[in-house]
Amino acid sequence: MHDDGVSRRRRRRAERLVTALLALLLFVVPGSAEPQPIAIGYLGQTRSPPMPLGPLDHFAADDGVQGARLGIADDDSTGRFLGQRFRLVERSLKPGEPPQDAIRQFAGEGITFVVADLDAGPLTQALAATGAERMLLFNSRASDDSLRQEACRKNLLHTIPSRAMLADGLAQYLAWKGWRHWFLLVGPHPEDQAMAAAFRRAAARFGAEISVDQAWIFRPANGRADTGHVTLQTEIPAATQVADYDVLVVADEADEFGAYLEGRTALPRPVVGTQGLVATGWSAVNQEWGATQLQERFRRQAGRWMMSSDYAAWLAVRSVGEAATRLNSVDPAAISVYIRGSEFLLAGFKGQGLSFRAWDGQMRQPILIAGSRLLVSSSPQPGFLHQRTPLDTLGIDLEESTCKS
To answer: Which residues in 367-385 are b (16+ Cβ under 10 Å) and which e?
Structure first.
């Protein structure tokens, strides 16, 4: 009996060992089933470098895509513990090239998630392309409020802040400082006009008074020319000779004149807005909330500092990875639902979790108030409260939304 009992125990141990070895062989044998990687598309567009204003200006031809690449690396890093893999499929539009073919190619490859690093016009075309209706697109470039309002889409999320969010973030800081009398100086381009409209809305919303609302009509001389600074030194005081105000708010998205204003205005007043002290989704000067490690990892990869477009693309890719990890699933439908749901929260190195608004697809996120070398503040500011979250004091709220998607 004793020998029989020992033999049975030995047989059971041998059977368990064989079972374990077979399981190991199934895992390592070439050709065994491996988890399919989650493919995320990136669609960018080639951009012409602008004329640099100064010697420190540097044009990054790879802005946006570098953020998406870092996002994929981070997704892989967190997903590997669950056996999840991610890959980025990159395409870039040539100048004037419509995006429909690229969207159809993504659809043909079974890609559900696409980072759309496009201006508003091409983005709208991409949404109308065949196959886009089966995708979830992340807008990582266009700040147009209309894309969150009447032109919103059910399959479009926004990781780049809207102009309304940027303006509200700045207006809250100016209100906190007590700088309530604004001189609004507006450039001639449509994007300048759109930013000015956002500033006007924010002023009314947070109790500021626009004492002067003026169009920029001068054409500054070339600051790099031998006598350029002399001409600027006389033209800008003339252009800014107005009644008293607390702060000069500039709407110059085209970056044609705003950088010339500091130190040259008729009155010694701060310059804020699209130049000077800026409201932005991301800045190279941000070192708080663990941002230094993100900045350094990006710099090692790209050889430059992270820009707002990089950060927005990174957020988009990380949103997919975070949802897949939380769900422990690679099912695109489940991931899409989770991203838009109330349980989704993404750590974005801004001091609080980020999520998407149900009514317009905009990612809730703090707005950085940044100087040229240091971070000055972050909005929402203390004291600006909201029934859901203070982050909803920035941008288009539910009650204001005209999105009908």
So the answer is: bbbbeeeebebbbbbeeee
Q: Tell me the DSSP string of 239-307.
A: HT--S--SEEEEE-TT-SSGGGTTTTSSS---EEESSSEEEES--TT--TTTHHHHHHHHHHHHSS---
Q: Give the SS3 label for residue 30.
A: coil
Query: CA-CA distance, 394 to 366, in Å (whole number)?
Result: 8
Q: Is 19 within the bounds of a domain?
A: yes
Q: Which residues contact 256 (CB under 8 A, 6 or more apart)?
A: 187, 189, 220
One domain, residues 108 and 51: yes
- 73 lies in the same domain as 147: yes
pLDDT at residue 30 tops 60:
no
* Average pLDDT value over all residues in the chain: 90
d(CA 340, CA 343): 9
SS3 34: coil
The answer to whether the beta carbons of residues 281 and 311 sit under 8 Å apart is yes
Which residues have a Cβ under 8 Å from the Cβ of 21 and sit 6 or more positions away? none
The verdict on 156 and 288 lying in the same domain is yes
Q: Read off the pLDDT band of 10 (50, 70, 90).
A: low
In the chain, how long is the greatest CA-to-CA distance?
110
Portion of the chain with pLDDT greater than 90, in percent: 80
Q: What is the mean pLDDT of residues 118-145?
A: 98
CA dihedral (325, 327, 328, 331) in degrees, to 10, reads -100
Per-residue pLDDT tens for 265-300? 999 999 999 999 999 999 999 999 999 999 999 999
What ranges in 131-189 are assigned the alpha helix state H? Answer: 163-177
- Distance, CA of 90 to CA of 102 (rounded, Å): 10
Final residue belonging to a domain, choices 254, 280, 306 = 280
pTM of the model: 0.89
- Give me the helices (H) in 92-245, please: 100-108, 120-128, 163-177, 190-205, 228-239
Is residue 308 domain-shared with residue 224, that is, in the same domain?
no
Residue-range definition of the domain harbouring residue 69: 38-161+284-365
Say which residue, 239 or 36, is predicted with more confidence.
239
Pair (10, 88) in one structural domain: no
Look at the chain and report how many structural domains it folds into.
3
Q: Single out the residue in 280, 303, 328 at which a domain terminates.
A: 280
Whether 157 and 94 share a structural domain: yes
Q: Which pLDDT belongs to residue 167?
A: 98
3-state helix, strand, coil in the chain (%, to 5): 40, 15, 40
The tokens describing 389, both together, are 């979250």
